[in-house]
Write a structure and sequence with these properties.
Length: 253
């Protein structure tokens, strides 16, 4: 259980250090490996192992509530945060990245290479990766978005539906710049909600296939028509977490 204190907030933010490291002689995607006493350091990279700049680094105390330090990765994807003497104890680090695309603002949790706590005495290295899909460490949730489906005037077996995704015309890449490809995924029953999980955020066209035929789709949050092909732009519909995104369709026979 964390103890609540506000005494440390301003001193912590004021003591945060962001150092622009000199260019490494190796490749830009070389992970930071050596610990530095009194500091947490690391590098942020994307799916192509290229550096990611302007990722937000949050270093938080494991006991004292609202006690944290903030930093950002530099042009080489590197960051360094000096740890204060007080309060003593352990810290953890996480990273997030904010991107604007498709008329939306997205915040991504970045995958850490180590989730363990650390202290000022030991220092630590925490590298982060920007991933658009895959299961989050120690969680049942995913980095990708999801499509939620609801029946409208039909009684089809929802778990027998497949969604077929193709890149939207003119959108050849995903939000991180990697190549967008066509794929299909089955619908699952997740605690009573029918959904397709872990979809990399991009802009898609989608179809719903059931027993060899195409069903009609209707965007649940628009004054929409029933159509066999719909555009997918992920956002926040319903009660979603800070970095969770979805889109909702009615399924019509």
């Amino acid at each position: 259980m964390k103890y609540k204190t506000h005494l440390w907030i301003l001193p912590f933010i004021g003591s945060t250090v962001i150092i622009a490291c000199s260019k490494n002689a190796g490749l830009p995607d070389t992970p930071v490996t050596g610990t530095k006493n009194g500091a947490v350091t690391g590098i942020v990279t994307d799916a192509k192992n290229l550096p990611v700049k302007a990722a937000n680094i949050i270093v938080e105390h494991t006991v004292w509530y609202n006690s944290y330090l903030l930093a950002a990765s530099n042009n080489e994807g590197k960051y360094e945060v000096s740890l204060p003497n007080e309060p003593a104890g352990d810290w953890t680090a996480k990273a997030q990245l904010t991107k604007n695309a498709y008329g939306q603002t997205y915040t991504f949790d970045l995958e850490p290479d180590n989730t363990g706590a650390f202290s000022k005495a030991t220092g630590a290295v925490r590298n982060f990766k920007w991933k658009l899909s895959g299961q989050r460490p120690g969680s049942t949730s995913y980095y990708g978005a999801h499509v939620d489906l609801y029946m409208l005037g039909t009684d089809v077996n929802m778990t027998k539906i497949k969604l077929l995704f193709t890149p939207y015309p003119g959108e050849s890449t995903l939000i991180d710049g990697t190549v967008a490809t066509a794929f299909e995924k089955p619908v699952e029953d997740v605690a009573g909600t029918f959904m397709v999980k872990d979809i990399p955020i991009g802009k898609y066209s989608v179809k719903a296939q059931y027993n060899g035929k195409m069903l009609l789709l209707n965007n649940r949050h628009l004054d929409d028509n029933n159509e066999p092909v719909k555009t997918v732009i992920f956002g926040k519909n319903g009660f979603l977490g800070e970095t969770e995104y979805n889109i909702e369709f009615f399924v019509v026979e």
